[in-house]
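Reopening this ticket.

The earlier resolution said the output was attached, but the attachment link was broken on my side. Pasting everything inline this time so it's all in one place.
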Amino acid sequence: MHLPQQGQEIANEPLLQQKAYILWTSYLVSSSPASRAARSRTRQRWTNFWAFFCSTALSAYLFSLPWLASYYNAEYHREPEHHAAYLGTVCGLSPFTPGLRCLNRDRLRKLARAQNRTWVCGCTQGPFGEAICPLGAPFSVSYFISSVTATGLLYSLAWWPCRNTWWYAEWLEHTFQPPPLLGTISFFGLLGYQVFFGLMLCMPSCLWLSGHVAAVGVMSWSFAAFAISTTITLWRERQYRALKVVILLVLIGMLGFVFMTLASCLGCKWEWVPHVVCTYFFWFGESMLLSAMAFMAPCLMIFGGVDLPIVKQPALSQE
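Inline output:
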């Protein structure tokens, strides 16, 4: 379409026609390949920022769970009438309940008296559980998220990291065309991770411990299969920068698994085991493992050194 050159008179045209001309000219300029490439690069920067921000928010939530539980329970103790549920108190378990004890060798009744409390939060009670001491089970992410509030918050924060991982895996397969076996392992690994992540949230550890542990195990090994297939694909394509990112995150996840294993094997059975090991190691290691999973896609998008398809634009026409 021929456009009037700069300097041609359009002042005599009706005002509506002048506005239409200006809008049409602006649209053609903004639709040029160079302009589309610039907008794509801007969108990619914001996409990377949002992906990294969501994973950071999820990781911060996981690592702050004991403090969230302590803070809310302290506030509830000071003003229980402002935090009471419609059908009764939020936390109604007595520290004098027969058989109820701390698993880290602390004395529950002594801790309750020191905080002037006649109650503790039991299974699914309190927004973030009970942090006075590990009751019935060691501190873990599952221990603190048994309530509806904590589970919903975790699922909301995990939605974007899961979505970004699916998106990056699909782009990786479309771009590098790995062998069918690697593509199948990657897809079913992510599918198993997504399905059993949901099952883990549906089965609190204080109610269905065996099912919860099984879901966590299948979820972890499914994501490990996806990470291994991604590593092999990047290695075959000589994407060494992205490969370093994957290896670093895998090492962080393995370190978290070491923390969890130490806490599970040692526990608080012997007096020589440090108090912090049997109290916080399992929760800390689980938070490290889940954070490494969440940061897989955004770290590859930002630090992987591979151009994503959103910034690839057709070359400018020479005509």
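Reporter confirms the inline version is readable. Residues 140-308 form one domain. The longest helix spans residues 33-63.
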